[in-house]
Structures are given as C-alpha cells and as structure tokens.
Amino acid sequence: MGRGRAKAKQTKVARQLKYYTPDTDLSALERELHRDTSSPVREPARVTEPDEYDDYGKWASGER
C-alpha cells in the first residue's frame, strides 16, 4: 500500500527526463573536440611518501 504516490512521482520524473531537451552549447563542444592535441597531457604528480601497502608490494614481488 502507498505505492501509488511513489509510482506517480517516478512516472513524472521519467517523463521529464524523456522530453527535456537542454540547450546545447555547440561551440563549446566543437572547442573540446578540436582542441590542440600536440600539447602534452599533464600526468598527475606521483606520491613519493610510502603508504601502508608498500610492504605488501615488496613481499608480493619477492623483494622482502
């Protein structure tokens, strides 16, 4: 019992999602797709401090 109100809400939300058409910024999409790929992609900085799993990694690789 009491499912009718919840189901009506779900139906309403599903209908809004189905028929909602947001404005698309096509120029931003074009800039993203055609960005300069010759520039190097920055990699995240490596963590140099040891963590709690370093000992396991040494043990698993046989370095002990």
TrEMBL record:
Residues 24-64 are annotated as: Disordered. It holds the Pfam family DUF3073. Residues 28-64 have a biased composition (Basic and acidic residues). This is DUF3073 family protein. InterPro entries: DUF3073.
